[in-house]
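dude i think i finally got it to work??
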Amino acid sequence: MKLETKYYGVVDIEEKSILNFNEGIPGFEDYKKYVLLGEDQDETVFKWLQSVEKPDLAFVIINPFYIKKDYEFDLEESAIQALEIEKPEDVKVYTIVVVPEDVSRISVNLRAPIIINQKNNKGMQVILDREDYSVRHYILELLQCQKQ
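look at this
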């Protein structure tokens, strides 16, 4: 299937690669179908979560464990049931990245990870009830903390 994307132009995707966000993403609830772009590009840790329904809607995402090795949380039972998760290894975790004009202030939202069940392609953004994670963690600061 041909898909018009925000940054890659028109790409071919397989329908089986479409991710279903039954509740949408907070702030974008009307858009429920997405694909991951850049999964096959090992040279970058940044990927794209591209809307299938709206070509100009795409989120930069990253595996949070690349920048915060001790990132951890427990999924609520309601999320586990909604995504039909059977085993932890079936899950991929991403966080949305905000890239401002001043790229030294690039940040990641650790409070609301994107959870994807790879077995059934169901996804959702969950809001964690954790005070130690905020919606704006600066990536450069996180990487510097890891070096120490």
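The two ends are 47 Å apart (CA to CA).
im so relieved honestly
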